[in-house]
Amino acid sequence: VRAAARTLKPQRTSQWAQRFLSMSARRQAAGFRVSAGAVAGASVLTLGFSAVTAYALEPKVDWNKVKSDVKAILDEDDFDDGSIGPILIRLAWHASGTYDKNTKTGGSDGATMRFTPEAGHGANAGLAEARKRLEPVQAKHPGLSYSDLWILSSYVAIEEMGGPKIPFRAGRKDKPSGEWCTPDGRLPAADMGTKPGTIAHLRDIFYRQGFNDQEIVALSGAHALGRCHTTRSGYTGPWTRAPTTFSNEYFRLLVETKWVKKEWKGPVQYENVDGGDLMMLPSDLALIEDPEFKKWVEVYAKDEKRFFADFAKVYQKLTENGCNNLEGGKGW
Question: What is the DSSP letter of 228?
């Protein structure tokens, strides 16, 4: 083993050691005796050169190809409104929104929603559909972490649905097990029973992540996309009439439409009086019931360009919270 270490270059030495250990395991399984010293020596080589070879052996991800592969799966006629874009954004959001600035836990780094108990948290109901659709993309690109894929996919979806381009920075690493899952209750609830309670809850959830009132409102603008399902959240319906188009329509509807409580057997939600084809959650209406929130709703309702710019910044912040090893620069 020492002779091999003198004659082989670091990368080849580590590869040799790995092959030796693999061969030794096979020989042991077949009943052959393998020298403990030889195995230990190979292990030392592997450990000794692991830092040197990690960079050399790790596959380089072609991010443009990943983007293209995500774009190729966005349109799906039989899924909701014909696009999986909104649920990809929800996946990234819920993976990221677990961050706690005080304990430095949670966030998108780790993709812990792959495991129980986080996969089974109530707020994540239905997100297995998003994870399943991204599996072929992840399998196609060696070296691509689920953590990076989930976030990049949401960036691609936002841009493809007409929203702003958000600079992507790679470097998230997947956690190995559910031991890293955060406790349930870190994501915002739709209703806390009273208007003051719901308003306070929104601030508690988002302040914990390091956001201010303006940023809370800007992030809420993503409700221009997608819809609720009784089989997932218990609520039903879209927020806007163009649920696959990123726009400031959510804010315009909040301030220009009269909303009344929906008469049904489900949880409390609101519908527009001019047709009943749209819905708002109690947490949505909280944005126009609190004066500090409302002033930003009004700004974004009038200025889509301002909303796009602010959303891009705060969404990048959401998806990078807690990530300590991202590539520098402004992305690509």
Answer: E
